Each structure stands twice: as C-alpha cells, then as structure tokens.
Amino acid sequence: MKKRFWVLPLLILLAFAVVFLIATSNGKSDYVKFIESYGWEVEDTPIEIESFKLPDTLDTVYMVYNDIQLRAHFDLTPYMGKEVTRYTYKVLNYVDGARCNILVYDGKIIAADISTVAIDGFMHAINERPY
Q1: If DSSP codes are grouped into helix, strand and coil, which group holds residue 8?
Q2: Residue 50's closest CA among 84, 97, 91?
Q3: pLDDT in tens, 53-87
Q4: Which residues neighbour 106 within 8 Å (Cβ) at sequence distance 6 or greater?
Q5: What is the CA radius of gyration of the chain?
Q6: C-alpha distance from residue 91 to each of 37, 67, 119 (Å)
Q7: Which of these, 91, 97, 52, 55, lies nearest to 76 by C-alpha position?
Q8: What's this model's pTM, rounded to 2 decimal places?
C-alpha cells in the first residue's frame, strides 16, 4: 500500500520536471544548434529520420563521402559496420531544395553535409560555403 502512495507524487514530480525542461529550453534540439553553429538556418524539425547500417568497409561511394567528411574534421572509418541514424533538415538560407544531413551514432554526430537531391545537385561539407 505504501508503495502505491509514492507512485502518484513521483509521477507529478516527473511531469513538473518535463514541463520545466521544455519551458527553459529554446525549443531547438542539439542537432539544430549544431547545424546553426556553422551558419546554416534550418527548420526545427527534421523532414526525414532514417536508421541504417553503414557498410563494413568503405566502398567507392562511401570513400567519396568520407573525403567530404574529412574536410569538416569528421571520419566515418571508426563507425563502419555500425547502425547510424540520419536526420535530414530543410536548409532555409541556401538554394531551393538544399538539405542538411547529419549522421548520428550513439548520440554523437559523426558526419554532416549540405546537399540537394536534384539530378544536377551537389553535396559539400557542412563547414563549406561555396557561394
């Protein structure tokens, strides 16, 4: 009986803690803050979230992608064969259709790029400003 007595107050305390955390944050995720630290403006909510496994070794496509990442001081090689999550955000202060992709492993950002999916599109490191 005494255990049940503590459940309701504990739930109320937890609810207040969550409300406090939401109210004191500026509403932006750490991922959005990371992207904005490079001068990019993005929507607060990702337009796509996808989890996938990186290949065990760098194939030709991932070698090219890793070369882009190395220019931004990221390196995918320690994460080959790992399950990662890609968060894609719409970029607001660049060409139409621009996106920012970040790859996350175990809560850590391991790669980030700016790209488009257009046929004549592009991809570059998050720290590059081609214009």
Answers
A1: helix
A2: 84
A3: 999 999 999 999 999 999 999 999 999 999 999 99
A4: none
A5: 19
A6: 13, 22, 18
A7: 55
A8: 0.78
Q: Which residue has the tokens 């090219």?
A: 64
- Nearest by Cα to 40 from 128, 117, 105: 128
Sheet containing strand 123-125, strands side by side: 48-53, 83-90, 99-105, 108-115, 123-125
Q: Are 102 and 91 in contact (CB under 8 A)?
A: no
Cβ contacts of 69 within 8 Å, gap of 6 or more: 75, 76, 111, 112, 113, 125
Pairwise CA distance, residues 28 & 50, whole Å: 20
Q: In the chain, what is the straight-line distance between the N-terminal and C-terminal CA atoms, in Å?
A: 67
- Total residues found in the chain within this entry: 131
